[in-house]
Amino acid sequence: MATYIIKTKEGHGSGCIISKNGLILTNYHVVDSASIVQVFFEDGTKDSGTVIRINPLFDLALVKIKPVLSKPLKVYLTKSTDVGTEVYAIGTPEEMDLGQTVTKGIISGKRKIEEKFYIQSDVSISPGNSGGPLINKDCQIIGIINAKIIGKGVEVIGFAIPSFYIEEALKLRFQQ
């Protein structure tokens, strides 16, 4: 699977591989001020990763590890995502032992918060899922999970940073 656990001194989050040369996409709030992180793979092995780009405004970060054999996830760059579309979140909710957890839901809305767009979903997410991919049925990254609403009477409302922000925010170019 193309998702990993990203661990720092402060805690852990999730990330996804986007290139065979070892680029991992995650949230800025997962890596925060760290320049080196630990990356845990599905088979239990780990490696050090170097944080090579950050964008606090878009809550995105790029981590570099050595080249991988895992098939990278493709980034869906189109701005069209329809409400009602089935989506899946992959990540590490709460405990590291729960790595590679997959949950399923739908896109339940599109929201504009502080001049940025977010994908709203009813996919179950928990602390530790941050930085993990929100993917469509074709296993393409449509967003990076970054927040959820917690409150009395509120359940299962999560948000993801749309993937169309990734190229601009992290100064990347994907070949389609």
- Indicate the proportion of strand residues: over 45%
Unreliable segments of 5+ consecutive residues: none
Question: Kindly state the mean pLDDT as a whole number?
Answer: 90
Spatial arrangement of strands, main beta sheet: 1-2-3-6-5-4
Relative helix content? under 10%
Q: How many strands, which pairing sense, and closed or not: the largest β-sheet? A: 6 strands, antiparallel, barrel
Q: What structural class do you assign from the helix and strand content?
A: mainly beta
Q: Would you count the extended β strands for me?
A: 13
Shape: globular
* Total count of helical runs of at least 4 residues: 2
What separation lies between the terminal Cα atoms?
Answer: 21 Å
| SSE sequence, one letter per element | EEEHEEEEEEEEEEH
Radius of gyration: 15 Å
What does this entry look like structurally?
The protein is globular, with a radius of gyration of 15 Å. The chain is mainly beta. The model has no long low-confidence stretch (mean pLDDT 90). It has 2 helices and 13 strands. It has helices at residues 28-31, 166-170; strands at 3-8, 11-19, 23-26, 36-40, 46-55, 60-64, 74-75, 86-91, 101-113, 116-121, 133-135, 140-148, 158-162. The strands form 2 sheets. The chain has a 6-stranded antiparallel barrel. A 6-stranded antiparallel beta barrel has the order 8-9-10-13-12-11.
At a glance:
This protein is mostly beta strands. It has two helices and 13 strands.
Which SSEs are present, and which pair or pack?
Layout: E1 3-8, E2 11-19, E3 23-26, H1 28-31, E4 36-40, E5 46-55, E6 60-64, E7 74-75, E8 86-91, E9 101-113, E10 116-121, E11 133-135, E12 140-148, E13 158-162, H2 166-170
